[in-house]
Every structure is written in structure tokens, then in C-alpha cells.
């Protein structure tokens, strides 16, 4: 399959309220093309609550239920139950939440819905910050990154959400990237045909949040993969398979680029390079990702 | 029809199932637990065929009900005390989204310290959420009110959620007989939900999206108007119920010995039931006193309160306290009477933390109020600093 083979139907409409270069909008466009018309979406507080535009207009051509920040997965549980009672088993219920609504405030409701085997797809578009509220630190923010609440750079490493998800032993879980639409499309398509709780995380490089130019969204997503800051994989019934360049990195067929290649282009890490290099922090960050890959190799190779 | 002798919670479970909600989402909390266990038993026996979601918190219970209701299904849940408080955000959400969810709340003390007995501060704290609030004083009233509440909530002139309250243990765990109509009779009274709007892939709209101030004010006004509509609709539904089943627990108030009363006692829930004994005893002593047991706290029946105030001196017993202000009923009754009647109103705070309020104490409160000279006076009944 190639990009030109994507369905022509558009469910994310023109004139929405997203920033230029917004990865969430790019990814959602692909996701909804893969899921099709019979999709009901739940959106908690996040950028997408704004992107969908101001009442009485809406930029999505599917039914949407907006819900409170921590409540996305629980709302999906209710919708699923109602649709099943109405015999609408062929409808997909999609939770579409940011990393704040997933890693942090929404984690309890998500874990509950996964444990209950709720038949839905939960997608976290991970821009590694609370971007809608103006770039605050989240549990997904990487170490060293500036945010408005980690003014000198975040001291802690990010949470490994995929491992938390995998502990629920789902029929399907995956990591994808907004910069790789074909891979994303295929993963969503695969998830759509599986019953039960499914989780997909999409890396979503945010131009204003990460401090890079709006034309560089795809580049930032790809560099995250090339440097090993982020991995593409899927887990089907606990069987983890890496794909794309991540597979080659896992199998040590290629060496990941140094992590600096990714972070040096993002203003949020600028203080690690100017006025002078923070060698200690840079080394810690590199070591963190090296260790992540060692762990991946031990567990999944 | 049959007679069921069981606790308030089990009879509530029976009513909930007979209302045929498509989705129940609930989380256990003392003393609501036997209600959700009751529903679980009906799932096991096959008597309840809807979806029963055992969620991981009350916040998710209310959210799942919101999701199911948004998708066009009838929904029910139940909680108590801290559970209701955890739901608070989503209570606002359910009402603002105009969803006809019905919920039982078993009134229980809020901690710390931990205490599982009866007190109304949990539900009184939700009075500004937009939910209709009803207070029951017997198991039969719980059954009848649950069925009637679905009819009320789903009426096109209302489309708001309803909170049905009753006292922890005093009602929730006390066995009383209740007449249970046949399922066909219930179905006849309460037809399936025909939702005003729902999530629909053939009519894709966004619910609860960003909204400007102009529209938002309209939303609030519409909720308020809907609550006012309920003032008229609640008595009508109660009358329809009486016509079909021969029972009426009162509509906005249950009035007892009020016709010639010079003094009227206003109380809610279990204290309201206990008050009848006190009224009988005071009447025997020659005091012309009646009882108006407040059933509907939201919408607040101001016009009816004014009528009571024009007839008699009022005595109010609150099992709650708005700290720094007054008992909620006392406060709102005086507010309704302002410039409409200058009746003497005496308020009592009693039964907090589940402290027993027997009829003897209610008699004492009434006498104290009758003898008292001060208007708009609030008294902490039986409160001793040294205890």
C-alpha cells in the first residue's frame, strides 16, 4: 500500500483550529481514514478539543463526545455498552487523548477500561507535554526538556507507558509516529479488526511545544525513530514485533544516530547546548536510551 | 403485583432493574453496596439483561453513564458519600450535557473521621450541579420514586438527571414491605427511552464542544427553565402513578395534619417519617401542628413554601450544615419567604454524623420553637460542648 491508496474520504475537515504543522491533526486524519465512517470518538480535554472548532461548527465528520480530562476511557466504556445494547457491534469506539490525559490524569480510567476488556481503541497522541494549556511538563516529557513548569529542564526521565499498557496483556498494542502515516494507517487498520481493548501511541512532535519550525514536524518524528528516542513496534497477544528502522536498531543491523541529532534541533533542549554544553545531562540522556534498547533486546529479540 | 419485604437498597435494585436501563455502571461504597450487589444478582439470574459495568471508581461510574446516555441508552447508577463527592465534576457534566441519568445516593457522612451513618452533606454539596434532588423516607417510596424519576428525567421538557436520596442504614438497610407491580405494568407506565439526541454515525455532530459565552448562558438558562418545569411535572407524574398503582407519597411535599395547623414542621427523608409520630403526640397535647416533609429539594418549591409560610409558623430540621452559614433547608426556606411572608421560622441542626433523631427529640424541638420568641433563629439541637 502507498499513500495514494488511502481512502479518499476525509473525516478531518478543512478550516479546523489546529496550529500549522500540528502532528495531532495529521495523525487523526490518517487514523479516521483507517477506521471509516462508523466510528464514535471520545475526546477529553486536550488540543483536539480546540482543533474540532467552536460551536456550532465542527471540523470532524464523525460523532464526537467531549468529556472531562481524566475520563476518556470511562466515557468510551459507556458508549461501547450502549452501542452493544443497540446491536451496533460493527461501530468502532475511539478514545483520542493526549499524553496528559493518558500518562497522568487519565491513567486510572484507562487501566480500568483495559482490565475490563472494553472493546475499544485508545489512541494517545503523545506530544510529550501539556500543550493545550501552554507547554507544561507531563509524565511523558523527556529528561532535560524545557517546559513552562520545568524552566531549567526536566530533571526526571519519562514514564514508560507502553510497558504499563503491556502489563494489561492486550490483544493489540502499538507505537506509531505521526511522521509515518503508512505505518500508522496499517497499525490502526489491524487494530480495527481485533476485538477487545487496543492501545496505540502516536509520537506527535509539537512545533510550538518543542520549539522547532512548523515545516519540521515530519523530520522531528523521523529523527526520533532514527536516533532511537522512540521505537515503532506492535504487540499482538503479548508478542512484540518491531518494525521499520526500529527493527534494524533492535537487531543491531544499524546503529541509531546519536540522540543529539534529535534534540539539538529542538529549542526545548537549547539550554543543554548554549551557552555551554551540559555534558553530564547529555550523557545521561544518551545512556537512558541505550539502556532502553538493551532492555528491548533482552525482552523482545 | 407482589409484595417484597426487603431493605431499601434491595428494593431500589429491584426498581432499577424493572425500569429496564440498558446500561448500569457502578462502584461499591458503604452503605450503597447491597444495592449494586442486588443488581449483580439480577444479572446472574438473567432478570437484568442490560450491560452492567463494574468500573474502577465513582468518577468512572458517572462518566460511563454519561457515555451510555450520550449514545442514547437509559442508564442508572448508585453511590454514597465520598463516591458522590468523587463524581462531582461529572455530575455537572451530566446535567450540562442534558442527560436523563437516574442515580440513587444513600446519604452518608463525609470524612474525616470515617463514619458511615446518615447525614445529608454529601447530596447538599451537589445542589448547584443541575440535578433534580428527591428525598425518600420509606422503601415503597424508593421503589415508586425510581420508576417515576426515569419518566421525569426523560420528559422532553426536563431532560436532566435525577438524584434520589435516602438515609444510610435507617432506610438503606431496614427491611420494610413494598408492593411491586408486574413488569408489564411498569413497562406501561415507563415506555422505552426515546432520546432527545444521541451520538449517531449517520448524523455526526460533536457533543460538548467549545462554546462561546452567548450560547453558554443559554445552556444555563435552559437548565434552570427545565428545573422550573419539573415543579409542575412532578405532581402530574405522581398523580398518574397514583391513578395506576393507588399510591402517592406526596409530590413536592408530603403533608400531614396541615389543614388547620398553626405550626408546620418541615423536615426531609427519615427524619420526615419520624416526624409523623411527633406530630401525633403534639396534637394529643392540643398543639395545632402539621408536617410538610420536603421531598423535592431541587427544584426548590418556593411557591409552596410561601403558601406554608402564609398559613403557619415554620419549624425546620436540617440533617446538614452549610458550614459558616446555616442548614440548607432553613436557609432556602427563609430565602423563599423573603418579602412574601413574615412568618417566624426556627431552624434546628440535628442528626449530624448519624446521631439518632427520635420522635421525642423532634417533639422537644417543636416545643422549643413554639415557645421561642426570636425569629429566624437557628439552634444546634442537643449539642453539648462537654460530650
Structural commentary:
Chain A has about 300 residues and is α/β, with parallel strands linked by helices. Chain A has a single domain (about 10-300), classed as 3-Layer(aba) Sandwich (Rossmann fold). Helix content of chain A is about 35%, strand content about 15%. An eight-stranded mixed beta sheet of chain A has the order 2-1-3-4-6-5-7-8, sandwiched between helices. In chain A, β7 (about 235) and β8 form a beta hairpin. In chain A, α1 packs across α7 and α3 packs parallel to α5. Chain B has two domains: about 1-245, 3-Layer(aba) Sandwich (Rossmann fold); about 255-380, Rossmann fold, CATH 3.40.50. Chain B is built from twelve helices and 16 strands. A seven-stranded mixed beta sheet of chain B has the order 3-2-4-5-7-6-13, with helices on both faces. In chain B, strands 10-12-11-14-15-16 form a six-stranded mixed beta sheet, sandwiched between helices. A two-stranded antiparallel sheet of chain B has the order 1-8. In chain B, α2 (about 35-45) links the parallel β2 and β3. The chains are: A alpha/beta (about 300), B alpha/beta (about 375). The interface of A and B includes residues 65, 71 and 76 of A. β2 of chain A pairs parallel with β9 of chain B.
Keywords:
heterodimer; A: 301 residues; alpha/beta; Rossmann fold; 8-stranded mixed sheet; B: 387 residues; 2 domains; 7-stranded mixed sheet; 6-stranded mixed sheet; 12 helices; 16 strands; 20% strand
Amino acid at each position: 500500500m502507498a499513500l495514494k491508496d488511502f481512502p479518499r474520504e476525509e473525516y478531518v475537515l478543512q478550516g479546523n483550529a489546529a496550529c500549522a504543522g500540528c502532528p495531532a491533526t495529521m495523525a487523526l486524519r490518517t487514523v479516521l481514514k483507517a477506521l471509516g465512517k462508523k466510528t464514535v470518538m471520545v475526546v477529553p480535554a486536550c488540543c483536539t478539543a480546540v482543533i474540532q472548532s467552536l460551536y456550532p461548527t465542527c471540523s470532524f465528520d464523525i460523532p464526537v463526545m467531549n468529556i472531562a480530562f481524566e475520563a476518556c476511557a470511562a466515557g468510551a466504556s459507556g458508549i461501547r455498552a450502549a452501542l452493544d445494547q443497540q446491536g451496533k457491534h460493527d461501530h468502532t469506539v475511539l478514545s483520542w487523548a493526549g499524553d496528559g490525559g493518558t500518562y497522568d490524569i487519565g491513567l486510572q480510567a484507562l487501566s480500568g477500561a483495559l482490565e475490563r476488556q472494553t472493546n475499544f481503541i485508545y489512541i494517545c497522541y503523545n506530544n510529550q507535554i501539556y500543550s493545550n494549556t501552554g507547554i507544561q511538563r507531563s509524565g511523558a516529557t523527556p529528561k532535560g526538556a524545557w517546559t513552562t513548569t520545568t524552566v531549567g529542564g526536566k530533571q526526571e526521565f519519562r514514564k514508560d507507558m507502553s510497558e504499563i499498557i503491556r502489563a494489561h496483556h492486550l490483544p493489540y498494542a502499538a507505537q506509531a509516529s505521526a511522521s509515518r502515516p503508512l505505518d500508522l494507517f496499517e497499525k490502526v487498520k489491524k487494530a480495527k479488526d481485533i476485538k477487545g481493548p487496543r492501545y496505540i501511541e502516536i509520537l506527535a512532535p509539537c512545533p510550538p511545544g518543542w520549539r522547532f519550525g512548523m515545516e519540521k514536524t515530519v523530520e522531528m518524528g523521523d529523527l526520533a525513530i532514527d536516533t532511537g528516542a522512540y521505537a515503532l513496534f506492535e504487540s499482538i497477544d503479548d508478542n512484540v514485533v518491531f518494525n521499520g528502522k526500529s527493527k534494524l536498531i533492535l537487531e543491531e543491523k544499524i546503529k541509531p544516530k546519536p540522540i543529539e541529532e534529535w534534540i539539538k534541533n529542538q529549542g526545548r533542549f537549547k539550554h543543554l547546548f548554549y551557552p555551554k554544553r551540559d555534558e553530564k545531562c547529555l550523557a545521561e540522556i544518551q545512556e537512558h536510551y541505550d539502556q532502553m534498547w538493551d532492555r528491548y533486546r533482552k525482552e523482545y529479540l | 403485583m407482589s409484595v417484597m419485604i426487603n431493605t431499601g437498597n434491595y428494593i431500589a435494585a429491584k426498581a432499577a432493574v424493572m425500569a429496564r436501563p440498558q446500561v448500569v455502571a457502578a462502584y461499591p461504597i458503604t452503605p450503597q453496596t447491597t444495592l449494586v450487589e442486588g443488581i449483580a444478582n439480577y444479572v446472574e439470574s438473567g432478570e437484568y439483561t442490560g450491560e452492567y459495568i463494574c468500573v474502577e471508581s465513582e468518577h468512572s461510574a458517572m462518566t460511563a453513564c454519561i457515555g451510555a446516555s450520550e449514545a442514547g441508552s437509559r442508564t442508572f447508577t448508585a453511590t454514597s458519600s465520598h463516591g458522590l463527592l468523587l463524581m462531582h465534576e461529572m455530575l455537572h457534566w451530566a446535567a450540562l450535557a442534558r442527560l436523563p441519568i437516574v442515580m440513587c445516593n444513600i446519604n452518608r457522612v463525609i470524612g474525616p473521621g470515617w463514619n458511615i451513618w446518615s447525614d445529608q452533606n454529601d447530596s447538599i454539596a451537589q445542589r448547584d450541579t443541575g440535578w433534580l434532588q428527591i428525598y425518600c423516607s420509606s422503601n415503597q417510596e424508593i421503589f415508586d420514586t425510581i420508576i417515576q424519576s426515569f419518566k421525569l428525567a426523560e420528559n422532553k421538557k426536563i431532560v436532566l438527571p435525577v438524584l434520589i436520596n435516602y438515609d444510610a442504614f435507617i432506610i438503606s438497610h431496614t427491611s420494610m414491605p413494598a408492593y411491586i407491580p408486574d413488569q408489564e405494568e411498569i413497562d406501561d407506565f415507563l415506555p422505552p427511552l426515546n432520546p432527545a439526541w444521541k451520538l449517531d454515525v449517520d448524523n455526526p455532530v460533536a457533543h460538548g464542544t467549545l462554546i462561546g459565552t452567548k450560547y453558554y448562558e443559554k445552556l444555563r438558562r435552559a437548565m434552570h427553565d427545565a428545573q422550573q418545569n419539573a415543579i409542575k411535572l412532578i405532581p402530574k407524574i405522581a398523580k398518574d402513578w397514583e391513578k395506576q398503582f393507588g399510591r402517592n407519597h406526596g409530590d413536592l411535599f408530603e403533608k400531614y395534619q396541615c389543614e388547620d395547623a398553626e405550626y408546620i414542621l418541615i423536615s426531609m427523608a427519615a427524619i420526615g417519617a419520624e416526624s409523623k409520630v411527633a406530630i401525633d403526640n403534639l396534637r394529643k397535647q392540643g398543639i395545632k401542628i402539621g408536617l410538610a416533609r420536603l421531598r423535592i429539594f431541587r427544584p426548590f418549591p418556593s411557591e409552596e413554601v410561601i403558601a406554608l409560610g402564609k398559613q403557619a409558623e415554620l419549624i425546620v430540621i436540617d440533617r446538614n450544615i452549610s458550614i459558616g452559614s446555616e442548614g440548607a433547608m432553613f436557609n432556602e426556606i427563609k430565602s423563599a419567604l423573603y418579602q412574601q411572608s413574615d412568618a417566624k421560622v426556627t431552624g434546628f441542626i440535628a442528626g449530624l454524623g448519624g446521631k439518632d433523631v427520635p420522635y421525642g427529640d423532634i417533639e422537644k424541638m417543636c416545643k422549643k420553637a413554639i415557645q421561642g420568641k426570636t425569629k429566624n433563629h437557628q439552634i444546634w439541637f442537643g449539642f453539648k460542648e462537654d460530650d
